Amino acid sequence: MTSLDEILSMLGAIIPPLGVESVVLDQGLGRVLREPVVASEDQPPFACSAMDGFAVRLDDQSSEFRTVDFLRAGDWRPRSLALGEAVRISTGAALPGDGLQIIMIEDAEISGDRVRILRRDAVRHVRERGENARRGDTLLAPPRRLSAGALALLASLGVPRLSVTRRPRIVHIATGNEIVAPGRTPLPGQIRDSNSTLVRAFLAARGLPVIQHRAPEDFATTRALLTDPAQGAPAADLLLISGGASVGGHDFTRRLLAELGCEILVAKVASRPGKPLIVARRGVAVAFGLPGNPLAHFVCLHLFVQAALGTLAGLPGETPFFQEGVLAGALDNAGAGRETLWPARQSIAGGAPVLEPLRWSSSGDLTPLARANALIRVPGGARELARGARVPFVSTTPPA
After folding, report:
1. Domain of 233?
2. Which one of 14, 65, 113, 355 has the fewest CB atoms closer than 10 angstroms to its CB?
């Protein structure tokens, strides 16, 4: 068996980042920037008012002024001010000249075109040209995942297209004679397929589409899906096969991947749930044989598949990393000899992560997944962890 840490490290080493594509700005949310963005002009590009008020000369200490113009944001009317003259100005409007100060409108008394200053301090209330960034400054360095704020910055810089990591081609096959679509009534001995929904939602939360198939517990049928170009699998960067990863008489995922020319890198992981995990590669493509039990699926997706996605995107630093939190209640791990990834509900109390362990009865138990947003890492052999114990955990929230 291979340890969790060994698998995460290996995935970062063997998977190269995908190539680059160009997308329009509005398609950039969540994508990974691959080229630096440099300011083509000063930011802001002109000195402007930081307040609604009156622009007056710094060297003019008059207590009363005559208003000679009114500038709104978007106006451009440069002019010189004589002593005793003021320009009424809105927040964001370009200053009419240099050497000016803004008197806030709250500190002035207005009567027609006359304004009397009630209070004046040393603050200029001016946003200087280039105070945020200078032309030629690198404002976004790759690689980085683009947030709404980053896109707003790019919009302000006049960047209409972005060079980002292309999205991976992902194919998922759910295998098993016992599974039926969620909308169908199972026959005796059958269950509804939850793993396809789990995989699809996991990827959708990361902005990733997936091609999905269901296959019976039949080697030839599944092999045909994987070799037929019309089904998408031969060109996949990431192949996920649900079920058939164990060593039972009908479990054929490992043999199937080997026959397709994949190198089997991992056959089992030394943690639970999810022990019968398979990791394989063919060229630069990576494949996972995921254990069919849904809680094991959840764990393997949020640890190992997430690590692969981060590396494919060009962000190996997005490999799931463990933080430290405090248990909100006792955790009974009796009977577990191996390391356990325990589903939990994470919250913040007093600025620190607090973890509520969620009850689960087996790796086939879906009930904790409705609330789980974290996995507690429980060492092998640990029988019980007390309330208040400090524990490592990993968040299952998608990377921002």
Report:
1. 4-18+167-318
2. 113
In this predicted structure, what is the pLDDT of residue 177? 83
Residues 236 and 374 in one domain: no
Q: Measured at the alpha carbon of residue 11, what is the angle toward residues 8 and 16, in degrees to the nearest 5? A: 145
Kindly report whether the global pTM for this prediction surpasses the value 0.90: no
Q: Which residues pair with residue 66 across a beta bridge?
A: 85, 114
162-203 pLDDT per residue, tens: 999 999 999 999 988 888 888 999 889 888 999 999 999 999
Domain assignment present for residue 400? The answer is: no
Phi, psi torsion values for 254, nearest 5 degrees: -60, -45
213 and 332 assigned to the same domain? no
* 20 token code pair: 């680059």
Residue 87 lies in a domain: yes
The token duo for 127 is 């946003």
- For residues 188 and 214, membership in a common domain is answered with yes
Q: Looking at the predicted structure, is the pLDDT value of residue 316 above 90?
A: no
Q: Dump pLDDT digits (tens) for 360-400.
A: 988 889 999 999 999 999 998 888 899 999 999 999 999 87
Mark whether 158 and 26 lie in a shared domain. yes
DSSP string, 76-140: -------TTEEEEE-TTPBPSSSSEEEEEGGGEEEETTEEEES---S---EE-TTSSB-TT-EEE
Residues 75 and 140 occupy one common structural domain: no
- Selection from 355, 387, 358, 352 nearest residue 371 by Cα: 358
Name the CA radius of gyration of the chain, rounded. 30
d(Cα 31, Cα 72) in Å, to the nearest integer?
37
Beta bridge partners of 279: 266, 288
Mind listing the pLDDT tens digit for each residue in 31-60? 999 999 999 999 999 999 999 999 999 999
Residue 77's CATH number: 2.170.190.11
Residue with tokens 């959840």: 298
59 and 102: one domain?
yes
